[in-house]
Amino acid sequence: MRKTRLACLVFAAHAVPCIAVHAAAGQAGPATSTTPRIEASHLSQDVKVLASDAFEGRGPNTPGEAKTVAYIAEQFTQAGLKPGGDLVDGKRGWTQDVPLGRFEIKGPVEVSVTDGKSSRALAQGEQIAVRAAMTGARSVEFRDAPLVFVGYGVTAPERKWDDFKGVDLKGKLAVVLINDPDFETGKGDFGGKAMTYYGRWTYKFEELARRGALGTLIVHETAPASYGWATVKNSNTNVMYDIVRKDPAAAHAPVEAWIQRDTAQALFKSAGLDFDKLKAQARARTFKPVELKGVSLSARYAVDAQTITSKNVVALREGSEHPDQYVIYSGHWDHLGIGLPDARGDRIYNGAVDNATGVAALLELARVYAREPQPKRSVVFLAVTAEEKGLLGSEYYAANPVYPLAKTVGVINMDALTPYGPARDFSISGNARLDLLTQLTAKAKAWKVRYTPDPRPEAGGFFRSDHFPFAKQGVPAISFRSGIDWEQGGVAAGKANADKYTADHYHQPSDEWQAKWTFAGMARDLDMLYSLGRDLADSKVWPNWSADSEFRAARERSAAERK
């Protein structure tokens, strides 16, 4: 008979239901597995709580953050883990402070386009999605700014590629395509369908800032962006955040925005240009920038700029033999908070799948590690903030690690897991080659689960989860993805569910907990992730990237610290 203790948390105005934490557990998974049981009921309960309206969409620097951080810390406490965050009076607390710039548009966004004959307004959130300026400016105002089409907006010397050809963009707005030049044809100088960092929207904003442009208008198209306009609108018209920078203008132009494809096409037509023909020309390295002659844009809006402090939540299961070596499990606790209403008038972006599932996974793994024998290496449980604002919590941790990255064995990130039944496969974000993936693939065979490469590498998933800041620093890191070959219904059912979620729920208020979710697939997958992490924690092995990986050199630079 298993003994239990109750993990309860009561806020001043909100009582959180208790979760039974077992002191011992039976086995799960294959007959040969020795992994302890992951409780699907715990996963469901954590998601239900974190995605409830009471947590207000878990926006950073809101009452929802305070409730979320308190809930996670309380669950870690009840599990029996140690605080693993910042040192306070010589003792570690549960959190790591993450200073962020907070930027919010105040009042109306007035945007209009003039084509020499007439002027018409562009509606914020409908035809254009203007982000709050992250330069520190209190207002943005300009009149009749010229528009220049710069293709995919890529400068890649190693590929002998330059979309700019020396064009002067000062005082001008650059119109740029999303993704890479290879996306449409699946072949070319950028490796085919798989997105490089040049295709990511963050790169395009950064590159245009480096070139001194007034701003960037990214043309939205669903296929190359990998999500619909609703996601763009909901992610870009609310509060923006960034890490605190010494020179924010070096990373951000005054104007950062997305524009609807049909709206962009109309602007090109007003300038006597064919959008589709120019888009085709942009796939070649011979492309040259084209000004939309006679077409200009004007805008005016106010910005509230502040510096705030958000929190990463950090727990530690200390190692018995090598406590100064670390395996990290991570997941982001934040979502979009309260934003624009949907068709039902719902303004709370609950973020059940994205990413209450990842936090629930983190909490349940923490409970398992706490009740199992002490690992030889330390295991860190890291719930990061502001992923939805650009991986900012993980970016800050990677730049200011609580535990040395040179002594970090690897990172296993969990983001937007599927809360349904088991699949016959699993995937990771992107198709990076590294020892962690090789080990997990071998481990999964015990459950008769196979690895399926990211079916949509063109979506740039590798650059969109919290393992990426660690990868840039050389730390072997993967972001686990649930499989789509479901035991019940096969690939057809799994793909249909993924497509429906992306179209109807991703970054929308309807991403809410559902009673029909079994969490059986998540529980099985977490058995595998526990087994992988436990092997890493009990070994002396230091996994690495493949020999041809762009991240291997950074890892090798710290090799001496691991001897």
From TrEMBL:
<protein>
    <submittedName>
        <fullName>M28 family peptidase</fullName>
    </submittedName>
</protein>
<keyword id="KW-0031">Aminopeptidase</keyword>
<dbReference type="GO" id="GO:0006508">
    <property type="term" value="P:proteolysis"/>
</dbReference>
<dbReference type="GO" id="GO:0046872">
    <property type="term" value="F:metal ion binding"/>
</dbReference>
<keyword id="KW-0479">Metal-binding</keyword>
<dbReference type="GO" id="GO:0008235">
    <property type="term" value="F:metalloexopeptidase activity"/>
</dbReference>
<dbReference type="GO" id="GO:0004177">
    <property type="term" value="F:aminopeptidase activity"/>
</dbReference>
<keyword id="KW-0862">Zinc</keyword>
<feature type="domain" description="Peptidase M28">
    <location>
        <begin position="312"/>
        <end position="519"/>
    </location>
</feature>
<keyword id="KW-0378">Hydrolase</keyword>
<keyword id="KW-0645">Protease</keyword>
<feature type="signal peptide">
    <location>
        <begin position="1"/>
        <end position="23"/>
    </location>
</feature>
<dbReference type="InterPro" id="IPR046450">
    <property type="entry name" value="PA_dom_sf"/>
</dbReference>
<dbReference type="InterPro" id="IPR045175">
    <property type="entry name" value="M28_fam"/>
</dbReference>
<dbReference type="Pfam" id="PF04389">
    <property type="entry name" value="Peptidase_M28"/>
</dbReference>
<keyword id="KW-0732">Signal</keyword>
<dbReference type="InterPro" id="IPR007484">
    <property type="entry name" value="Peptidase_M28"/>
</dbReference>
